[in-house]
Amino acid sequence: MVRKIVISLCVLTFGLLVPVLEINATHVWNPDWPAHARLHEVWQLITNCLLAGGCLWLAWVRNQVAAASLLALAVISGFLAAYLVRGAYGGSMVHPNGSELLVGGVNPATAVMLAAAIALAGCLWSTARSLPR
Q1: Structural contact between residues 14 and 52, judged by C-beta atoms closer than 8 angstroms
Q2: How far is CA 110 from each of CA 29, 107, 113, rounded to the nearest angstrom?
Q3: Alpha helices by DSSP H, the chain
Q4: Residue 98, by phi and psi: left (phi above 0), alpha (psi -120 to 50) or beta?
Q5: CB atoms closer than 10 angstroms to residue 26
Q6: 3-state secondary structure of 7
Q7: SS (H, E, C) 91-102
Q8: What does the mean pLDDT of the chain come to?
Q9: Hey, which residues does 103 pair with through a beta bridge?
Q10: Per-residue pLDDT tens over the stretch 29-61
């Protein structure tokens, strides 16, 4: 049950929290973004919401905790990888007005995603350990 709750909290980050934070004038309706970039943003948000729903279904209905953890970890790792290589493609967590939300010098979105990745890896590890040998 604990693993299912952990998975649920982790997928809510990309399935609910990120859309709430990005469906606004800084992202989806940002007039400075090319229309093509906005299309990709909405595509990513919809895809992540669908994947979050799939993870919840796998965990709660199918009781496939490992599969749900792995799928959620893939989505979150995608964000972390994009963050790590942001210099290579000119990406940034800084908003167009030059501001960036930092807490103690750390971007909270990155910290939350890293914590979720660690939690999901823990779910995978504990699930593997509980399998019959």
Answers
A1: yes
A2: 23, 6, 5
A3: 2-12, 18-22, 35-56, 65-84, 86-89, 108-130
A4: left
A5: 15
A6: helix
A7: CCCCCCCCCCCC
A8: 93
A9: 106
A10: 999 899 999 999 999 999 999 999 999 999 999
Task: Tell which residue, 129, 4, 1, has the closest CA to residue 72.
Answer: 4
Amino acid letter, residue 125: W
From the list 47, 42, 56, the residue with the least C-alpha distance to 11 is 56
CB 56 within 8 A of CB 64: no
pLDDT digit string (tens) for 52-105?
A: 999 999 999 999 999 999 999 999 999 999 999 999 999 998 877 788 888 888
Flag whether the pTM goes above 0.85: yes
Neighbours of 41 (CB within 10 A): 17
Hey, what amino acid is at 8? S
127/113 Cα distance (integer angstroms)? 21
**Rg, C-alpha atoms of the chain:** 16
Rounded to 5°, the CA angle 27-33-35 comes to: 105
